[in-house]
Amino acid sequence: MHPFLIDLDKVSYTPEGTSVLCDVTLQASERRIGIVGRNGSGKTSLARVLAGLVAPSSGKLRINGVDVVKDRKAALRQVGILFQNPDHQIIFPTVEEEISFGLTQLKHTPKEAAERTADILARFNRSHWAKAAIHQLSQGQRQLVCLMSILAMQPRLIILDEPFAGLDIPTMMHLTRVLHAVEAHLVHITHDPAHLATYDRMIWIDQGQIVQDGAVPRVTQAFVAQMQEIGESDDFTHLPG
Ligand SMILES: Nc1ncnc2c1ncn2[C@@H]1O[C@H](COP(=O)(O)OP(=O)(O)OP(=O)(O)O)[C@@H](O)[C@H]1O
């Protein structure tokens, strides 16, 4: 057991010379962590760094003690990421193939993978989806398939990058309930602090740096006040990039 689930020490990410994340230091082990920030502030880049999908340009990153960039196999057991658009992560034509794939990556036998896939579908009362063609499901249903694929792999940490974007209110409410019950730790990126009301900690990112980090009510108040102030200026000059 490592002292912090998430441990970043002066992490910078500078693709093609662009400073996207700058000296981010963060130690966190809370079960529910929210990340807010403006368009282009670096949230998705931070999510990708945390998941080990891109390497920091400098600094040190560990998830539960694992170097998730270098040790990709161990990383799969530590961290899963749910992208904003399910179509960016779905590879296979049917639901059961999609869910089984991650399990075979974890070196489960085909029989074990099939059993675990059946288990997770049953847990969500979706056993009848097993042979369904993913492209025939709605966006919310595809998002649920992606989440089931991640949950089947049982990572300790799941990163959610604007998981509610494009979902209608009932689907969002359903997904909220599902996420609430998830045992894994969550890092949830969103533009709407209301989604984080019950969370343990909120981190506000701006221009690739942490500008506030703490209890949800306090960070929400400061974030909303600044967003309103910028919004009232009624132009796009503040938009980064
Ligand atoms: N590989 C890259 N090369 C160059 N610039 C990049 C790269 N990846 C991200 N950026 C830039 O870094 C900034 C942060 O992007 P990122 O997608 O992380 O922001 P975000 O906070 O998730 O934004 P949004 O809320 O709009 O999704 C943007 O200006 C983006 O253009």
TrEMBL record:
ABC transporter domain segment(s): 6-232
SUPFAM superfamilies in the record: P-loop containing nucleoside triphosphate hydrolases
Keywords linked to the UniProt accession: ATP-binding, Hydrolase, Nucleotide-binding, Transport
GO cellular component, one term: ATP-binding cassette (ABC) transporter complex
Gene Ontology molecular function terms on file: ATP binding; ATP hydrolysis activity; ATPase-coupled transmembrane transporter activity
SMART domains membership: AAA (SM00382)
Similarity annotation: Belongs to the ABC transporter superfamily.
PANTHER family in alphabetical order: ENERGY-COUPLING FACTOR TRANSPORTER ATP-BINDING PROTEIN ECFA1, HEAVY METAL TRANSPORTER
Protein name: Biotin transport ATP-binding protein BioM
Annotated gene: bioM
